[in-house]
Amino acid sequence: MKNRIFIYTVLLLVFCLALGGLSASGAETKKIVVGAKDFTEQYVLGNLMTLLLQENGFQVEEKFGTAAAITRAGLISGQIDLMPDYTGTAGAVYFKYPEKIDDPVKLYEMAKKDDLEQNNMVWLGRTTFNNTYALAIKKDMIDAMGTSISSLSEYVNKDPEKVLFAVNHNFYEREKDGIFGMAEYYNMNILRKNVKAMDTGLTYDAIDRNQVNVAMVFGTDGKLRKFDLL
After folding, report:
1. In this structure, what DSSP letter does residue 29 have?
2. Which of 112, 138, 174, 216 could make a disulfide contact with 178, Cβ separation 3.0–4.6 Å?
3. Within this chain, do residues 71 and 106 fall inside the same structural domain, yes or no?
4. What residues does the ABC-type glycine betaine transport system substrate-binding domain cover (predicted)?
5. 14, 22 in Cβ contact below 8 A?
6. Contacts (Cβ under 8 Å, ≥6 apart) of 217
7. Local mean pLDDT, 10-residue blocks, the chain (230 residues)
């Protein structure tokens, strides 16, 4: 369930950055609208992009904190010019490839080609930054649930009715690599009625308040330490 991050943008901005060498000198400064989704990693990446553009003379407007579908729609419609995104999301959600593609380079090339042909958008080069969906539990539940996906499966399957999950809307809706695709792959009997879909940041609050037993998190998120989750 790993997603590799890529920065992609409308075609006009790619040409502007490539030909201008990331510099706005010698030409009328264009305001660049940078978008970011509604979770920590996106805020960090969006701010890094803003700083890079500003240091090279561009005016920047930030549109951060919108839901994933809204951010993507803003890029397609031209309301934003640049955003960080994931090939895993492109394959599973945007283009709905019928087969799961494990080769990150192949997936990148497919998404790059399809977004250019279908939406006239260009994906910039891949970064080495990697993010991962994960399931987290409270540390006081280690004895019962264990520390692996297989031990969690055993715990859930003993009494599926009592185990509640909190996930974000994307992870709930993704067919092949979302919560239910994961459950099928690991033979985990997760009841659909026991999965609560919510905004990304709220999954941490839900498990902290004992409203759920298991929370979807991101492997890069500092909230794992803040809420003392495993």
Report:
1. P
2. 174
3. yes
4. 30-229
5. no
6. 133, 134, 135, 136, 203, 204, 223, 224, 229
7. 39 37 56 90 91 92 93 93 90 88 89 93 81 89 93 96 95 88 94 94 94 92 86
